[in-house]
Specification:
Its main location: nucleus. Keywords: ATP-binding, Chromosome, Coiled coil, DNA damage, DNA recombination, DNA repair, Nucleotide-binding, Nucleus. There is one protein chain. By secondary structure, this protein is mainly alpha-helical. Among the domains are: 191 residues, P-loop containing nucleotide triphosphate hydrolases (Rossmann fold, 3-Layer(aba) Sandwich), CATH 3.40.50; 218 residues, Helix Hairpins. The chain has 19 helices and 13 strands. It has a 3-stranded parallel sheet. A two-stranded antiparallel sheet has the order 2-5. It has a two-stranded parallel sheet with strand order 3-4.
Amino acid sequence: MAIQVENPVNILSQDASREFLASSKPDQLYQWFLKGTQLLQLSEDLEAVRETVSVVESTIAKNQEILPSIKGKKLEWERKYQMITEARQMVQKMQEMEEKLAWVFVSEAENAKNEQVSIIKELESKIEKLESKAESERNKTSLIDDKIKEKKESLQDSIRQIDTLQQAKSTIVSTQNELLSEIRRLKNNETEMNNDAREYRKRYESLEKQILNEKKRLEKDVSSEREKIEKLKAGLEEENKEIVETLNQGKSKQKDLELKKADLNRGLSQSFDKAEQFKTIIAQKRRDLERLRQQSGDKLMAFGRGVSQLVSEIGRAQWVGMTPVGPIGKFIKIKDRKWSLVAETILDKSLNMFMVDNHKDRNTLDQIMRKCNCNSGILICKPELFDYSNGEPDISYLTLLKTLEISDELVKRQLINLNRIEQIILVEVRSEADDIMRSNQGKFPRNVVACFTVDGFQVGSQKGGFSTLAVNLVQQTGRLSENLDSIISKINMEILEIQKKLSDENAESNNIKDKINELTREYQKIDNLRKAGIRKIDSIREQLNKIELEITDQEPANIMALEAELRDVQQSLQMVQSQFANQLELKKKTAEKLTTNGKDLEDASGKLDEAQTNISELRQEINEYLEAKQKVSENIQFWKSKIQKRQSQIGEVNNTVKSVEREIETLTKQASQIAKIRPHIEPNLTSKKLQSEVDALSKMITEIESNQEESIEEIAKQSQIYINNYNTAKKQLKQMILYALTLKEAHQMRLQRWMNFRESMTIRVKSQFTLHLYRRGYAGNLEFDHNAKLLNPRVNTDHDLALMAATTNNVNGSADSSNDSSSKGKKAKSKLGDGKSELGAARKDNRSLSGGEKSFTTISFLLSLWEAMSCPIRALDEFDVFMDAANRAISMRMIVKSARCSPETQFLLISPQDMTIKPASDIKILMLEPPSRT
């Protein structure tokens, strides 16, 4: 089955339904019948076949008239052909020579192909060697990358080692300060011991004198004086205790100050490094400024050194193909400045490139570049302007191509090939870029290969998910902008900003220096206070010793006590001397530790200097490796260009080979047309020699032809043409006659089938129409007039049928009561005749029906047509607008019953009326919401 969407009876739209319901004329109803059953289409097809048969028969008649004249021409040229049979023998010989000549051309072309194949093998051998060299360079790149990685790891280790060494050095310095403090303490103790020894010696001498003068001294009352002395002694001891505590606090504070000073020294060193970096950046920016100022006089300087000289040399050189075009960036301008840096980063090296269309010009341009010391790239391209619109993404995306103003269409195509600028989109906001790059089921949108933001980030991942990569933006050189003043102003602003940062860093350094100086002053102040405290302690001890002496002097003389004290003083002096010896030993050990500490400090400083030197060397080595990598990359590019050159040569030779092969194929076909079997060709036979022999023979034939009105070839050709024309015409005429007979028989057979099919459709529709009327209580029939193409539906409603039944009964009753008399019988017959005429008058056509009856009749007709069709979907729109409730209910039941009798058919009914049918499992009612009037 097929859904006959174009069949208006199958899918009755609102307009079609209205037209169908309004159709009341017999010719209109007949046309609906033909359309619904598709008999109209078959009728039109059969009519087309009949017209074709008429055209073919007309053509046959014309060809039969022309055939005798063609036959006469054929006989005439056959006679001429017989007259030059002898001349054809000479022509045959020349043809044999021409056949051999054709195959000689093939042999020469095959020899040329073999030579080109040998050249290709030689070039492929050279390419293998070049690829080996390029692979060797790529291996070097891998090794250099490993070395760079190793050196960077070593650099990180060295930086970590410096931090460790700086911490170790700080510890050693702290230890050294502690040892120095210890030595100072030991010196102070030594001084104190010397003072004590001197005091003990003085005391010893004094005691000896006192013992001698004891007897001469008088006893005095010294109690009050002794109390004062004791009070002064207690005050001095308390002051001594406070000074000792202050000294200990000062020593602890000095250690804290030394740690702070070490941290500040590290910060100062880092600040100095940052300042040096800022100075380096400022110097680079100033060099860029100088270069941009020079560019204002020569804009080509932006594309690298030597470009201006190269452009002038290009104009003076001779070129095989087109004059080299470049630099490419000269033809490009940026429309929106905010994308200038991103666009220049994406295109970068492509902006400096030159374009040629063949390898010879590339070699010439490469030599000129070497002469001009120019490092720009060379691109070999085909000068063709292809259509790139199919590769662009949705027009809502801003692509790199749209932001560029490219004045040369060839440059635009090459940038599309090199950088795919038509498929790189630009988005200002990074979050929006993330959404765009994941909009295609987590993948890139169609025809999008990359996405960049205005702040220099590449967004998106082909594997899906979020991915943001910071791009190393190039230094803006003004290659995409004619307004260098804005770039110079921008760089000046950057220099001012960096100078401000440098000034802030210098201020920070000075601030750190001030803090260090302040800590140094505070340290010195504490050290001075400590020294003053030590001197004060020495002074207090001396005063205490004097007080002890005064107290001793004021005590009652006691020779035995003085002698005992003398012995104690002597023992104390010996103890002090012993402690002094121990002190000297401790001082010696401390000095040795200090010496060792100094060596450790020197070693740590040496290691630190060595690590810093190592870092500088590693950075230098990394730079050297990077330069080597760049050189290797250039070498790889050089070998690649050589390989491309050889491959291009192979391509050219292959093109030559293909051209020769096509030539061989053409020559072979031509030779095969001339001579299917390849003749033997002598090794020394050339096409030139054979051609001269053919020319000589042709001259002889020409002399023979001069005696004839036509040439041998013309006679033979014309004779063959007329023979072929006659045979072809005769054959075609027979074929056309056979075709016409076959087509005519097929037309008659299909026409008879169509009539049979129409008859069967008519019977089926009639029966179905009568059945549907019967279900309503109506009676009627469809009257078809196929010759006049008319269809008249005759319908008797239930009221008509009741009237007819009553009339019939009355007529029958009158006939029974008058059987006895002949006159009464004649009257009955007359009345019966009148009843039959009334029955005929009761059968109505559509025009005499009411609106509901007419709609019901039309629905019955539609259902009858549907029963004769084989479409799985049937639709009906606003079919019940003119029906009353009774007809609508009966019509709905009829349609539902018809639908249930066709379970494989889908019925779609659309009505503005309330549905009176009850929902069921096989009936679905969809109610639309009333339209909003607000």
